[in-house]
Please model this.
Amino acid sequence: MSAELVISNVSRVFPGVNSGQPVTALQPTDLEIPRNDFVTILGPSGCGKSTLLRIVAGLDRPTTGSVTLAGQPVTGPGADRGMVFQSYTLFPWLTIRDNVAFGLREKGVAEREKWEIVDSYIDKVGLRGFENHWPKQLSGGMQQRTAIARALANNPRILLLDEPFGALDNQTRGLMQELLLGIWEREVKTVIFVTHDIEEAVFMASRVVTMTARPGRIKSITPVDLPHPRHYTVKSSPEFSALRLKLTEEIRSEAIMAATDG
Amino acid sequence: MHPLQPIGRGARIALGFLFFVLFFAAWGFATLGGFVSPTFLADPITMANDGFYLLTEQGFLTDIGVTVWRVVGGFVLASVVAVPLGIAMGAYKPVEALLEPFVSFARYLPASAFVPLLILWAGIGELQKLLVIFIGSVFQIILMIAVGVANTRRDLVEAAYTLGAKDSGVIRRVLIPANAPDIAETLRLVLGWAWTYVIVAELIGASSGIGYMIINSQALMATGQIIFGIIVIGLIGLVSDFLFKAVNRRLYAWRLA
Model:
């Protein structure tokens, strides 16, 4: 089976600011992601993991290499690659319902079908009763749930998440992980999830991709064979602990390098 | 009283009124107490009498109507031109590069200095009044809107693109709604300035309007009438400001939520 998403030889060099040295954010990277895989990309801050994700999303251009999704080369952002950002990016002037409907409206989906889809995703992320609220009136966790619903309602081929729970408190984050994983188990989607949280990376993933400190490149790919559906109690299982330890060791050395390099 | 500490609604209104009372009291004290010659400054009672005379005998309401129409006309004209241009400038860098230097320059051209020229071009009719306001407002609006649109949150624009929006969709469904409250606020501000321009235009070469009444009253040394005219302008400004704010609060409830 050919891979759904093919990242080949993708690198990114940012030009120097004020005639300074150019900064290599990402070394030439290859990665293939099969259909319906859930890949987490784990790495210390500044390892280029967000840059890689933004290139897949089409929001940034690679300096070398190319990305293809289902055989189509990526040339810019598009509805086939849904994205959830770390910052709260709900449109503040639209209600929760209209936010979730944004992509469908842009596509020109018929009214009735549109609202059916929107309401079903609002249910899936547990926001029934909040449809007519403004984003500002919702907590951070609820806003990110809306953002996930908004991305999924568009039925993208692949869902990209850039540290979506990074700004949430620990308890909320745990609940959000379960919610997203539950949706993935039922809907079956290709997902790339960027995080710097090791536990999160293991819990969510079928495969964990670790990256080295800047300039970033892929260091290892670790399959996670924990059974589905996953319950949060899996986090205290020996298999989980073993994976966490292995990844902690790998990331630790990178984090030390990142910290000393500045 | 501590920095940034909010106060109650009642206290806010009472304090707002208090200053008006103080202002009129000081004015009354200076004039009625005989500290200022009535030739130069009328007292509040004379002002009120003059105002009543203007409204009942001199058809001052018509003058007020004419001035309001000029302000609104010139302002709407300027907005219709400036809002789309400002959005285009904020959204598209080449448009910005083309227009920004000129608009920044034109913004400093004093509208009142155009009055003699505009009289030559357009006579002393309504068109000339509208043009003074137009010139005074249009560049300000363009520039302020362009800056706002250019500073739209980048992550919202990116989110829209990843949801499948095209360029026109980003403008219509992100840049415009995101900036609508600031655009309204800009218009409210510039409307205030438009009042200054209309009076200047009416002081020179007009046969009706509040400014015309004021310049006529100067010839008659009727300072009470002048002050009444000025106060009427202030009151209209206050009311239009209030209406603008009320409409904005309704339209842009998402901001306050």
Notes: The first strand of chain A starts at residue 5 and ends at 14. Residues 5-80+156-261 of chain A form a domain with the Rossmann fold fold (CATH 3.40.50.300). Chain A touches chain B at residues 57-59, 76-79, 81-83, 85, 87, 89, 91-94, 102-103, 106-107, 133-137, 147, 150-151, 154, 160 (CB under 8 Å).
